[in-house]
Amino acid sequence: MKPKEQKEILTLLDFERQTVIYPGTTRFSDIGIIRDVSDDGKNCEIVYSSCSENDLDQTIKHQIEVARNARYELEWKVYGHDRPHDLGERLLAAGFKTGEKEMFMVSSVNNETLNRFDVCSCDIRCVTSKEGLKDVQMISEEVYAKSYETQITRWGAMLENHPQSMSIYVAYIDGEPAASGRVYFQESSKFAGLFGGQTRERFRKRGLFTQLVAVRIREALSRRIAYICVDALPTSEPILRKRGFESVTYTQPFCFSE
Fold first, then answer.
1. Do 7 and 97 share a domain, yes or no?
2. Domain contains 197
């Protein structure tokens, strides 16, 4: 990707971080901070920050106090081009715990992009109801060995209240749920976001990951979305890069909870 194009994408990304509000959340703007709180009041994500070096420590302290008073889990999503450059280090010093660094990868949405991915040969179904989320929960809990009850409840509410904002797909092998993935669409956004690509261990190396990406790209294409993006872990980054996705920055979650 040429530097000019990368800069244009980052400029558009930062604009949307400040203006696009995810369904199921309420937005709050503090000094130098934009945070989205889930409608159930259990989670908050700082989606954008523009703090000066001198004000940052006090801002972090204030956000921790707000989180404690509201009793929600706080995630500060840091992008590689955010400033100041030591934002992540200061969050760690304040008691945040860091998650894994992921590459923020982007691809244009067009037929050429779609053709780079495997043709769908297995049974892939779009989840349209809360009942269908049982298979997603089973896959997620097997892959990550932890409860997904809270996430399933949140996704169920999204399907019920904002069905145009999220699609969840499940791939089946011989009628058995084998893999799943989500894609998010926000009104007025030029980006569609891929999340949650996961495959049960005994069904891996069958192309299910790329087939699920293809299905979601196809939906983005039908909606006339300009770009599709993903926070890619090291396991999926080379697969996506091989098929035309390019890295423009990285993301890393910093979480605070008590």
1. yes
2. yes
Give the helix/strand (H/E) hosting 1: none
DSSP assignments along 181-246, one per residue: EEEEE-TT-SEEEEEEEEE-GGG-SSSHHHHHHHHHHHHHHHTT-SEEEEEE-TTTHHHHHHTT-E
Taking the C-alpha atoms of residue 44 and residue 35, their distance in angstroms, rounded to an integer, is: 7
Q: Are 75 and 254 in contact (CB under 8 A)?
A: yes
Q: CATH no. for residue 213?
A: 3.40.630.30
Domain CATH number, residue 39: 3.40.630
pLDDT at 4: 87
pLDDT of residue 1: 79
User: Where in the sequence is the domain holding 98, given as residue range(s)?
Assistant: 3-105
**Measured CA angle at 211 (ends 148, 2), to 5 deg:** 100
Q: What is the pLDDT of residue 110?
A: 95
Cβ-contact 181, 197 below 8 angstroms? yes
Co-location of 122 and 96 in the same domain: no
| Cβ count within 10 A of residue 149 | 10
Residue 26, pLDDT score? 95
pTM of the model: 0.92
Q: Are 9 and 115 within one domain?
A: no
Q: Which residues contact 166 (CB under 8 A, 6 or more apart)?
A: 155, 158, 159, 182, 183, 184, 185
Amino acid in the structure at residue 127: V
Q: Which residue type, as a one-letter code, is found at position 169?
A: Y
Other C-beta atoms lying within 10 Å of the C-beta of residue 123: 14
Collect the ranges in the chain with pLDDT lower than 70. Answer: none
Contact predicate 232/248, CB 8 Å:
no
Q: Which helix (H) or strand (E) holds 179?
A: strand 176-185
